[in-house]
Amino acid sequence: MTKEASKNIAKLLKESNYAVIVTGAGISTESGLPDFRSQGGLWDGRRPEEISHASKVGTDEFRDFFTKRLNDAAEHKPNAAHRLLADWEKKGLVQSILTQNIDGYHKAAGSKKVLELHGHLRYLTCNGCGRDYDVSKFTVEHSDACLDCEGTVRPNVTLFGEELPHLAWSEAIQEARKADLVIVLGTSLQVWPFNSLIDEAYQGGNAARIVIVTESETPYDGIASIRLHDKITAALQAVNEYLV
Ligand SMILES: [Zn+2]
Q1: CA-to-CA distance for 164 and 161, rounded, in angstroms?
Q2: CB-based contact 226:211 (threshold 8 Å)
Q3: H-type helices in 30-59, by residue range?
Q4: Protein residues within 5 Å, CB atom, of ion ligand 1
Q5: What is the CATH architecture assignment of 36-75+120-157?
Q6: Which of 126, 175, 185, 233 lies in disulfide reach of 151, CB 3.0 to 4.6 Å?
Q7: Are 169 and 200 in contact (CB under 8 A)?
């Protein structure tokens, strides 16, 4: 990454009135977290879309899949990029984070205004009565049976075949429309409707500038003011040099 690009991103951040960060799996793979949703990522030889599907809730393979996800998230930690974003929010440079990630690392790193659009793994919930359970229900007890009803205990994540949580989604659209700067980190922006947040921001009243830092190509590369293929932690650390 050139010094010029770091300097320019820092300048955009300082000049913006409402900076929104959009994150995907790429920011957390730099913590060592595997990305099962990425292209070619397989789980037991099968596509995660088949197992992480609403129709699979209550099956052993579904519970095993999320037990692995829960263990992975617990074994790894937020990295320098997560921490810098929390720091920039504290300094008033970043207004909110819209994330596809379910690992909870943004909140764990201290970010306050985080919309977790695909849910989180902090606890599990019965789909019958709504009772919450500690994640040990999966990881230690290997059970998804509710103690209070006939329902099934599942993670609070948006599965394939399910809609995004309505409240978080409408809040995310409001955030995108308020933005005059959007920095995309570690997502190839292939998943609809998540990627439509970029359209909302770009076509919104503040005609947000778009910065994209992610390894793979995205459908939005053409409208990006700055487009980097660098590692996210390295990129944000370089930008930070120009913020102090
Ligand atoms: Zn229940």
Answers
A1: 10
A2: yes
A3: 48-51
A4: 126, 128-129, 131, 146, 148-149, 151
A5: 2-Layer Sandwich (3.30)
A6: 126
A7: no
38 pLDDT band, cuts 50/70/90, is: low
Structure tokens at 3: 């010094």
Picking from 178, 177, 175, 183, the residue whose alpha carbon sits closest to that of residue 9 is 183
Distance of CA 153 from the midpoint of ligand 1 (Å):
7
Burial of 175 (0-12, 13-18, 19+ CB in 10 A): buried
Place of tokens 């998943």: 191
Mapped onto helix, strand or coil, the DSSP state of residue 201 is helix
> Which residue numbers are catalytic?
118
Parallel, antiparallel, or unpaired for β 181-185 and 19-23? parallel
Contact 183, 9 (CB under 8 A): yes
Q: How confident is the model at residue 41 (pLDDT cuts 50, 70, 90)?
A: low
Q: What superfamily in CATH does domain 1-33+78-118+164-244 come from?
A: TPP-binding domain (3.40.50.1220)
Q: Where in the chain is the domain with CATH 3.30.1600.10?
A: 36-75+120-157
pLDDT band at 181 (very low <50, low <70, confident <90, very high): very high
Measured in angstroms, how far is the CA atom of residue 156 from the centroid of ligand 1? 14
| CA distances from residue 120 to 31, 125, 220 in whole angstroms, order as listed | 17, 11, 26
Distance 128 CA to ligand 1 centre (A): 5
Per-residue buried b or exposed e for 222-231, using 16+ beta carbons within 10 Å of the residue's own CB: ebbebbbebb
pLDDT tens digits for 82-135? Answer: 999 999 999 999 999 999 999 999 999 999 999 999 999 999 999 999 999 999
